[in-house]
């Protein structure tokens, strides 16, 4: 049984809190938030204890692991505190919005041999995991082209966008991680172009809501990613991998599989309303992986080093949006 402290009681903290409380091998011992009322509400729902005292959260005599799901600008400080206390950590992305600070935190955690994982949960989506297995097994030959789509149903609030780091670091970064994981290769360069079609005010933040990104892999294979913040038909996410001898795809998922037939017309169920409805189950599977690794001493991933690589791609893509050029990707040494 792993005694967990959950750091952060906002929306995503609520998701993780429910999963932690439901896990048979987890005791949700503490819920921390700077807002005591919010922490108390979440803790009461799951029979846990609320706290605003980080000393309780990072007490290795009372806690076996922490789940960092607080605001983005606090991930790094909490990860450093976990490393200092020698407490394993599962952390929401990113480690820090500033890549240099993220590298410094990861290097510190590595000196403490901290078991840590970044919650790139899409790796734990059933369809994507099978797609990656097929590619890795060589069933479709060598990878030549990967097509990825991430299309959200609605613009997030501007106050969120202002602190998100931009589309490349916030939305597309999940697919940078997937591209590395699926291909087994580190992209060498990236070209990104984008527009503000759904929300022109994003330009004030140097951000875009509609983008197309091309990654060049070693050997010349390509990855193409289209991302939009707002579409009119639900949430659309899919991946296709073309190999030298075949192709594998994880198709868009509908909310249901019922088709209604009438004269001259077939009506199918539409797509999921939002991103959370589409990938909800992957959060549970990611937690299962982390807990199992702690219980059995198995390898943990995505690792902090892998998260840094995805963030390095996002940094280069963000530069490309401004420069209009193919940018080299500089990975942390």
UniProtKB/TrEMBL annotation:
Pfam families: GFO_IDH_MocA, GFO_IDH_MocA_C3. The lineage of its organism: Bacteria, Bacillati, Actinomycetota, Actinomycetes, Mycobacteriales. Keywords: Oxidoreductase. This is Gfo/Idh/MocA family oxidoreductase. InterPro entries: Gfo/Idh/MocA-like_OxRdtase_N, GFO_IDH_MocA-like_dom, NAD(P)-bd_dom_sf. Residues 3-120 form the Gfo/Idh/MocA-like oxidoreductase N-terminal domain. Residues 128-249 form the GFO/IDH/MocA-like oxidoreductase domain. It comes from Rhodococcus jostii. Belongs to the Gfo/Idh/MocA family.
